[in-house]
Predict the 3D structure of the following.
Amino acid sequence: MRLGLALPNATPDGRPLTGPALIAGARAVERAGFDSLWCFDSIGRGFMIPDPLIAVSVAATATDRLTLGTGILQVPLRRPVELAHRILTTHLICGGRLLLGVGAGSTKADFDAVGVDFETRMQAMHESLAIMRKLWMGERVGAADLKPWPAALGGPKVLIGSWAGKQWIERAAKDFDGWIASAAKTSYATLADAIRRYRDAGGMRAIVTNIAADLDQPTAALPDDGPFHLRCGKDAAAERLARLAALGFDDAILVPRGHAEPALAALRALHR
């Protein structure tokens, strides 16, 4: 199982994020030996995080080997042709290292902030993905013809974010390049059931993201119906990651309390 990390949203000493801190954070994650770096997506929740496509593009220019992912990009918040163009540009900059995690979104505040209907988000995602995939292949859709650069033709690998959905997990297995679950929304038991369904449908790459990690917290048992997390001691955290690997997840993406290099080293040592 590969181990990834969320991009920092603050400086190492907790001050508000700056451009240099974002770049330094990406480089620190790579130096610490993690396999991937991930950016999230929110707009209307009362706090600001970097735009995921811009952030992974910046991280790509600052690193050499990290896989770069969006976990997840909320497709219905954007117009599909414009988004397809931005994604192709990001794919070009990342040089084949981009994993595009996409989803319909689950937080109404984000939709209210941009004036998009929340109730029709599933249909909007279905329609937008179909449009974007055609455009990435160089097809014309209505008046839109992006004519992708040869190095970006076909677009990036697309993974579907779905926490426990009855429709999109199976679609991720059959029609896309992978599936992304969220530990922040999901218990260990639900993760176990969902990955079984994904593998039964023929799915390949399975990623669990949003795993809160704080090794300075006292260890307590995970509640049966609570989110999966690593807010516990080192031994317990290593055991929990081993349980995820045993379920068959290919990647685990941690969200640490901070990105100071000693903390990153301790997290990386949990799983090799």
Notes: The chain has a mean pLDDT of 96.
